[in-house]
Amino acid sequence: EAGVAQSPRYKIIEKRQSVAFWCNPISGHATLYWYQQILGQGPKLLIQFQNNGVVDDSQLPKDRFSAERLKGVDSTLKIQPAKLEDSAVYLCASSSVRMATRADTQYFGPGTRLTVL
Amino acid sequence: AQKVTQAQTEISVVEKEDVTLDCVYETRDTTYYLFWYKQPPSGELVFLIRRNSFDEQNEISGRYSWNFQKSTSSFNFTITASQVVDSAVYFCALKAAGNKLTFGGGTRVLVKP
């Protein structure tokens, strides 16, 4: 079974530019998550989708970050405009349960390392 | 509020030594789940184990073992006879009310040959 796919793996941009990340979850997984992991810290949830609907985006900086999951499969995360503090690894994860519960296990992709200069 | 503390930021051992990673969690919920993930240099978080709050049995999987003690709110992880391939950052995580996965800060393990 293929794992969570993400692209690109690395991205370097200048501040105020825009950038987009793509995620393809494990086949059949209904729930998709985007996390931000700053160097030396644990991942922090940005947004959670259930199929193509948003379940939790309370920690997403909505003035510059946006995400969508059209057709309930692939997802894109966009930053516009980027700031220096957005330098981080952006991880995508998916889980198989129809409704996210405490028991579901999240499986992570390799991440996209973003450097903002 | 939920919180996970991994007090050890980095542990360095020589190959074949045992290493124990500490994890202390805080939650007011009686039903919760605890997880351990491994993050090798490649960056991907690899799922290792999930444990629910009602199952305090210790678990062993090969060279890995986990000690869950509800009385001290701890879920410690031991690697026996460490190998160079065990070098990674290990994260403990908690999921309780709100179904949000809360990670600790991670412990970097360096296994020297």
What does it look like?
The complex is a heterodimer of chains A (117) and B (113). With 117 residues, chain A is mainly β. Chain A is built from no helices and eleven strands. Chain A has strands at 5-7, 10-13, 19-24, 31-37, 44-50, 53-56, 65-68, 75-79, 88-95, 107-108, 112-116. In chain A, the strands form two sheets. In chain A, strands 2, 4, 5, 6, 9, 10 and 11 form a seven-stranded mixed beta sheet that branches. Chain A has a four-stranded antiparallel beta sheet with strand order 1-3-8-7, with no helix packed on it. In chain A, a hairpin with a 2-residue loop joins strand 5 (44-50) and strand 6. The radius of gyration of chain A is 13 Å and the shape is globular. With 113 residues, chain B is an all-beta fold. Chain B is 0% helix and 53% strand. Chain B has no helices and twelve strands. In chain B, the strands form three sheets. In chain B, strands 2, 5, 6, 10, 11 and 12 form a six-stranded mixed beta sheet that branches. In chain B, strand 7 (59-61) and strand 8 form a beta hairpin. Chain B is globular, with a radius of gyration of 14 Å. In chain B, 32% of the residues are buried.
Layout of helices and strands, plus pairs?
The complex is a heterodimer of chains A (117) and B (113).
Chain A: E1 5-7, E2 10-13, E3 19-24, E4 31-37, E5 44-50, E6 53-56, E7 65-68, E8 75-79, E9 88-95, E10 107-108, E11 112-116
Parallel strand pairs in A: 2-11
Antiparallel strand pairs in A: 1-3, 3-8, 4-5, 4-9, 5-6, 7-8, 9-10, 9-11
Chain B: E1 3-5, E2 10-14, E3 19-21, E4 24-26, E5 33-39, E6 46-52, E7 59-61, E8 64-69, E9 74-79, E10 88-95, E11 101-103, E12 107-112
Parallel strand pairs in B: 2-12
Antiparallel strand pairs in B: 1-4, 3-9, 5-6, 5-10, 7-8, 8-9, 10-11, 10-12
Features:
heterodimer; A: 117 residues; mainly beta; seven-stranded mixed beta sheet; four-stranded antiparallel beta sheet; B: 113 residues; six-stranded mixed beta sheet; 12 strands; 0% helix; globular
